[in-house]
Design goal:
The chain has a single domain (28-120), classed as Trypsin-like serine proteases (Thrombin, subunit H, Beta Barrel), CATH 2.40.10.10. 5% of the residues lie in helices and 41% in strands. The chain contains 1 helix and 7 strands; from the N terminus they run βββββββα. The chain has one helix spanning 114-120, and strands at 28-32, 40-45, 49-63, 69-76, 88-91, 96-104, 109-113. It has a 6-stranded antiparallel β-barrel. A hairpin with a 4-residue loop joins β6 and β7. The longest helix has 7 residues, at 114-120.
Length: 128
C-alpha cells in the first residue's frame, strides 16, 4: 500500500508544460484491458517513442536497485530507455490502458499494471 512518502510517478495530470519532444500514445483511460502472456502491447515513452512487444509474464516480482522488490509487475519484450518511466502501456487493439512503464534491462521491460496503481493509490481515478 502506498504510504505517501515516495513515488516514481509520471502519470499525473499537471499544469506544467510538457517537455519538448515527448511522445504520447494516450490510451482510452476509461476502458482498461487485461494483461496476459502472449498479448501484443505498445509502450509510449518520452525517449523511446512508441515501442511494441509481447507480454512474457503478467505477474513477476522484480528486484530493483538497492534490493527493493516490486511485486505483481508485468514483464514484456518492448524496447525502452531511461526516461521512459511512467509512459503508458496499452493494448494494440482498442488502445486500452494496461499499465505504466517502470523499468528495463538488456532483454526485458517491466510495467506496473493499471489495477495495481488503482488499488494502491486511494482516490486515484482514470480519465480526464
Amino acid at each position: 500500500m502506498f504510504d505517501g512518502t515516495d513515488c516514481d510517478c509520471a502519470f499525473i495530470k499537471t499544469t506544467i508544460p510538457v517537455e519538448s519532444g515527448a511522445v504520447f500514445n494516450l490510451p482510452d483511460l476509461t476502458n482498461t484491458g487485461l494483461n496476459y502472456a502472449g498479448r501484443y502491447i505498445r509502450m509510449s515513452g518520452k525517449n523511446s517513442g512508441i515501442e511494441g512487444g509481447f507480454i512474457i509474464d503478467s505477474s513477476v516480482d522484480v528486484t530493483r536497485t538497492g534490493g527493493i522488490i516490486v511485486l505483481y509487475m508485468a514483464e514484456s519484450t518492448y524496447g525502452s530507455q531511461g526516461g521512459d518511466s511512467g509512459g503508458t502501456v496499452s493494448s494494440d487493439i482498442g488502445n486500452k490502458l494496461l499499465g505504466f512503464h517502470t523499468s528495463h534491462n538488456s532483454s526485458v521491460s517491466h510495467y506496473t499494471k493499471h489495477i495495481n496503481v488503482k488499488d494502491n493509490f486511494t482516490g486515484l481515478t482514470f480519465g480526464f
